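Technical annex, item 7. During the second reporting period the consortium partners agreed on a shared format for inverse folding records so that results from different sites could be compared directly. Each record opens with the tokenized structure and is followed by the designed sequence. A conforming record, contributed by the partner at site C, is shown below for reference.
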């Protein structure tokens, strides 16, 4: 199944929260250990028999192209500039896929079982499947009524967050209102998820494995540390 599945890798953003680090390179080329985030991702995709890539590039996109070519990977590239939002970038390549396509944010690494993800997506009969992971909120959360009377209190609740991976049917753009496509940043994908959810067309895939996202200096330091620990532990188990 996976050999015939395309994966769209979104690499167009500026990554401003990383400051000087992304002044010279796009965020997917930031290093985690000895390799860039992108190279870690591609190594894992190859291990999962995913070999058909569409890169949606923008900011310093030529550097993404160069690394992909240096790795000997054949791929399709789409560059519609730095400003378009996520949904707009996917819409620009909609004629390149007809089967369900995997969506991956370029700054997120996750060791997902993609065969299982696609299988669950197809069985759900949904237009969109989003990958969600549990996260503990470090605060106690309050809710109150219109008279400011507290009606509930949850201490450090476990929440579920979208980790930047999804499976999308090619029919999605025929279902959603066209005005959602051109919304800036992530607004288009957020409104699309809400719109399709109201129609019962969004499936959630629960994932609790290794997943790392790099948006800030703190997240970069954490990801670098966690990936190093993970591979050290993995290698010790394999010996």
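Designed sequence (site C submission):
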């Amino acid at each position: 199944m996976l050999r015939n599945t395309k994966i769209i890798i979104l690499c167009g953003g500026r990554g401003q929260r990383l400051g000087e680090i992304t002044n010279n390179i796009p965020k997917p080329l930031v290093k985690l250990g000895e390799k860039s985030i992108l190279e870690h991702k591609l190594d894992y995709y190859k291990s999962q028999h995913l070999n058909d890539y569409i890169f949606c590039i923008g900011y310093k996109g030529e550097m993404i192209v160069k690394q992909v070519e240096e790795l000997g990977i054949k791929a399709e590239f789409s560059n519609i500039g730095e400003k378009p939002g996520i949904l707009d970038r996917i819409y620009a390549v909609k004629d390149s896929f007809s089967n369900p396509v995997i969506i991956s944010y370029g700054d997120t690494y996750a060791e997902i079982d993609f065969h299982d993800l696609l299988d669950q997506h197809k069985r759900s009969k949904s237009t969109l499947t989003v990958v969600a992971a549990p996260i503990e909120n470090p605060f106690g959360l309050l809710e109150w009524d219109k008279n400011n009377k507290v009606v509930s209190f949850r201490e450090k609740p476990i929440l579920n967050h979208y980790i930047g991976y999804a499976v999308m049917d090619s029919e999605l753009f025929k279902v959603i209102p066209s005005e959602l496509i051109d919304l800036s940043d992530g607004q288009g994908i957020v409104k699309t998820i809400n719109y399709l959810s109201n129609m019962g067309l969004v499936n959630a895939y629960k994932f609790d494995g290794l997943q790392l996202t790099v948006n800030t200096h703190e997240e970069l330091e954490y990801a670098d540390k966690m990936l190093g620990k993970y591979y050290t532990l993995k290698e010790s188990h394999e010996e």
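The chain has one domain: 2-132+161-238. Residues 231-239 have pLDDT under 50 and may be disordered. All partners now use this format for quarterly exchanges.
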